Amino acid sequence: MVQWTRAEKRTFLRQRVEARLAALLMENKEFSEALTLLSSLVKEVRRLDDKLLLVDIDLLESKLHFSLRNLPKAKAALTAARTAANAIYVPPAQQGAIDLQSGILHAEEKDYKTAYSYFFEAFESFNALEDPKAVFSLKYMLLCKIMVNQADDVGGIISSKAGLQYVGPDLDAMKAVADAHSKRSLKLFEITLRDYKVQLEEDPIVHRHLQSLYDTLLEQNLCRLIEPFSRVEIAHIAELIELPIDHVERKLSQMILDKKFAGTLDQGAGCLIIFDDPKTDAIYPATLETISNIGKVVDSLYVRSAKIMT
Question: What pLDDT score was predicted for residue 280?
Answer without folding.
Answer: 65
